[in-house]
Amino acid sequence: MSQADCIFCKIVKGEIPCAKILETDTILAFLDIAPVSKGHALVIPKAHFPTILDVDPALGPDILAATARVGQALMDATGATGFNVGLNCNASAGQLVFHAHWHVIPRIEGDGLSLWPAGKYDSMEEMNRLAATIGARV
């Protein structure tokens, strides 16, 4: 997808409307049109980056601050007692819009939402081998 075709870039430019929550010089936050729960919001950098792997690291503090502000505001406004923050990177992980974005999902105890089933490793040795393999690539 080119930047010109990006729905989030069109939202940033004001070409497509959104239910805006927060806007700064670098960040825009708005309600998701297909919410997991009422108040489900998206936090995006205004600049186009297809995935988190492409995001300018200098934006990290802005993204973190906006995500925390939105999460607190969602709890205050909806009565939620917590929230999840999630990001999908690439199609195999469920990314549908290729403009990096963070989901902020309000939660209440017993809401029945399950974002992922718990898995397990066969052994601590398996975990340590995988951790070493991943760590060598960081």
TrEMBL record:
Motif (Histidine triad motif): 99-103
Domain HIT: 7-114
Entry's Gene Ontology molecular function annotations: catalytic activity
Active-site feature positions: H101
GO annotation, biological process: nucleotide metabolic process
Domain of life per record: Bacteria
InterPro entries in alphabetical order: HINT, Histidine_triad_HIT, HIT-like, HIT-like_sf
Name this polypeptide is given: Histidine triad (HIT) protein
